[in-house]
Design a protein that fits this description.
The protein has two domains: 148 residues, NAD(P)-binding Rossmann-like Domain (Rossmann fold); 106 residues, Dihydrodipicolinate Reductase, domain 2 (2-Layer Sandwich), CATH 3.30.360. Strands 3-2-1-4-5-6-12 form a seven-stranded parallel beta sheet, sandwiched between helices. It has a five-stranded mixed beta sheet with strand order 8-9-7-10-11, covered by helices on one side. Strand 8 and strand 9 form a beta hairpin. It is elongated, with a radius of gyration of 20 Å. It starts with a strand and ends in a 7-residue tail after the last strand. It is of the alpha/beta class. The longest helix is centred in the middle third of the chain and has 14 residues.
Length: 267
């Protein structure tokens, strides 16, 4: 019999948070012990319109939630500012964070890694929880060894705050690890409109599209004389991220260290 995992969820009313509540509700060994939200302090999740019928208290002060609740895991699906504070507090309380918030600075990530190491508390930060997106990143890294000329185009809904996306940045980092640095394009290339060629990263380009109708999509295009290679992943529904969330929650229970990127948990 699988041991029950007690979970605090931050961001229950967001689109991703609502899907996570549904995941917890349908997963027998997941138990919601509380939520962190900027509204509805003292109410139960089941009292809030359009949320699953789960009897767990809501806290507006995350410190109170960690002090009062007996939790194993924090799932944080908020934003970089709130998400960092929640994650930091969780590690201080030896609660294992599973974080789907992109946009943390390198300094913040370094601090979280150090705290995880000091407290021997597992943490998973995943720029993307869709298993297909993780494979897309891994396949792109494989291709970059043989196709060093590359550009990344990521497309998200128009309410996304950070650009480029955490997935695009992670993909670029993985490509950089295997690609010899070189400046792509014509040496005398000039933008007649600033930003037309996108953001530059290690000599190649990342482009961000923000439009209603998208959830998340990324295309990594490689070019070589006489041929191109495109590796694409699309999420049509936020449900696509939940298998990765469940996988991360189950994996983090066996960890006492810091992991950035779901691909590092996949064999």
């Amino acid at each position: 019999m699988t041991e029950t995992i007690n979970i605090i969820l931050a961001g229950p009313r967001g689109k991703m948070g609502t899907e996570a509540l549904k995941l917890i509700e349908r997963t027998d060994h997941f138990n919601l012990v509380g939520c962190i939200d900027r509204k509805h302090n003292g109410l139960s999740v089941k009292d809030i319109d359009n949320l699953p019928n789960l009897d767990a208290p809501i806290y507006t002060e995350s410190s109170e939630a960690f002090d009062e609740l007996n939790a194993d895991v924090l799932i944080d699906l908020t934003n970089p500012e709130v998400g960092y504070d929640n994650t930091h507090l969780a590690l201080l309380h030896h609660v294992r964070p599973v974080v789907g918030t992109s946009g943390f600075s390198e300094e913040q990530l370094s601090t979280l890694k150090q705290l995880s190491d000091e407290n021997q508390t597992g943490i998973v930060i995943a720029p993307n929880f869709a298993m297909g997106a993780v494979l897309m990143m891994r396949f792109s890294q494989m291709a970059a060894k043989y196709f060093p000329n590359v550009e990344i185009i990521e497309k998200h809904h128009d309410q996304k705050l950070d650009a480029p996306s955490g997935t695009a940045v992670k993909t670029a980092q993985m490509i950089q690890d295997v690609r010899q640095t070189e400046q792509q394009g014509h040496p005398e290339e000039k933008e007649t409109i600033e930003g037309a060629r996108g953001a530059e990263y290690d000599g190649f380009r990342i482009h961000s599209v923000r439009l209603p109708g998208y959830i998340a999509e990324q295309e990594v295009t490689f070019g070589q004389t006489g041929q191109t290679l495109k590796i694409t992943h699309s999420s049509m529904d936020r449900y696509s991220f939940m298998s990765g969330v469940q996988f991360a929650v189950e994996q983090v229970m066996e960890m006492d260290d810091y992991v950035y990127g779901l691909e590092n948990l996949m064999e």
